[in-house]
Amino acid sequence: MRISTNQIYDQNIRSILNNQSDLVNTQEQLTTGKKLLKPSDDPVGAAKALRLTEELDSLTQYQRNNDLVTGSLELQETVLTNVTNSINRARTLAIQAGNGAYTSADRAAISSELKQIKLEILDLMNTKDANGNYLYSGYQSGKQAFEFDPFSSGNAVSFNGDQGVNFVQLSDSAKIQSTSSGFKVFENVQSRYKFTIDPASVVPPTVSEIANQDNFDNFFKANYDATNNDFRVNFLASGQAELVNQGTGAVLDSVDFSSGVAFTLQGMKFEANASSGDSFDFSLDAPQNKSMAQTVHELETLLSNSSADDDLLEEGIADALIGLDNGLEIISLERAAIGGRLNIAESISKSNFDLEIAAQASRSSIEDADFAKLSTEFAKQEAALNAALATFPQVSELSLFNFI
Q1: Does residue 128 sit in helix, strand or coil?
Q2: CB-CB contact of 120 with 86 (8 Å)
Q3: Is 54-191+291-354 CATH 3.40.50.20?
Q4: CA–CA separation, 142 and 1 (whole Å)
Q5: Residue 188 contacts by C-beta under 8 Å, 6 or more apart in sequence?
Q6: Which of the two residues, 67 and 27, has the higher pLDDT score?
């Protein structure tokens, strides 16, 4: 077969250029550490690597979300711990204030400390996160959650946020509550259940008080109805006091009765100078909710009033203790919920970390270079290029004129 001079030159140049291209490609793989330099190198592998990169980006964002929500929940837990400590101190002071040996000056001193506790609780309820947003304002995070106005015609402590709660995505299928509304945690605290004697009764009792709060609470929950809230105690000829729901006529309880001797019905203690055929009426007070800061404020105001009599003090202290206990119960439930969310966040974080390692390994197997293999290949390609460069001048000098 006859090979022209042009063919010899073209073939040698093409061989040198191919060797140079392979050498440069291998060198670039060694430099970048990647064997996939462009999609055409491995279209299927490039598509898989792209999907894995997107998955890793999502996992990185989820881990960032996890760190943020964990920080927020830990801050809330700290706030609730401090509020619990403050409320427990207020509760201790309330019990001390009920000591009959205390003077008005002693109670004024307790009132002064309660004022500081109230301000501390208000400050905690208005805690801000790292971004300057109020933790307990709901969706209105830029607005102060609680305000204190001692001259308000209603409650001095008012909630200005809403009941919205925020959630944060921690994985493709899992999201976790990151905030709670101050309304649920601090504001919506059940006050003490009470009742009121009708002053127009035939024989109003000389004593009417709650002797057993738990029994009365059960009676209240079972019988309170805003449209049917009238009750009567009838004194019967049989020597009994009978509790009746006036709306339904149902007899709810009965006990032995003697005029001028105290008796108890459904946790309520009465004493009346009555005879057969007499009666008195009462109604259950409408349930009320108020914040713990408001409860502390009312107790503080009561104890600072030197003219308050023993009955008023006893009633006010009982109201405060019930309100504070109910508030502590809500906080305890919220702290338990936060602990559960932190556990979930930690578990999801570990799962995401494992998924991230697996995705990185898969992507690495597709696009990362094998340095040992590439180094060997580079040496082989370099030798081939040198051989092509060395032989080309010798081949190009061959001519028939050398033999004439």
Answers
A1: strand
A2: yes
A3: no
A4: 89
A5: 289, 330
A6: 67
| Whether residue 378 has pLDDT greater than 80 | no
CA 125, 130, 133 angle in degrees (round to 5)? 55
> What's 317's DSSP letter?
H
Q: Is the pLDDT of residue 20 over 80?
A: no
Give the span between the Cα atoms of 65 and 60, in whole angstroms: 9
Asked if residue 317 lies in contact with residue 299, where contact means CB atoms within 8 angstroms, the answer is yes
CA of 230: how far to CAs of 87, 221, 225, 382, in Å? 35, 15, 9, 104
Which two three-digit tokens encode residue 239?
């020597």
pLDDT given for residue 205 in this prediction: 96
How sure is the predictor about 47, in pLDDT bands with cuts at 50, 70 and 90?
A: confident
Of all residues in the chain, what percent carry a pLDDT higher than 90?
68
pLDDT of residue 336: 96
Q: How sure is the predictor about 51, in pLDDT bands with cuts at 50, 70 and 90?
A: confident
Predicted confidence band of residue 42 (pLDDT cuts 50, 70, 90) = low
Alpha helices in 98-207 (DSSP H): 104-125, 182
CA 158 – CA 190 distance, rounded (Å): 15
> Measured between alpha carbons, how far is 299 from 322 in angstroms, rounded to an integer?
12
**What average pLDDT does the structure give for the chain?**
86
Give the domain ranges of the chain.
Answer: 54-191+291-354, 195-284
Which residues does residue 148 pair with via DSSP β-bridges, in sequence order? Answer: 157
Q: Are the C-beta atoms of 161 and 298 separated by less than 8 Å?
A: no
CA dist list (Å): 74 to 71, 208, 338, 343 = 5, 47, 8, 11
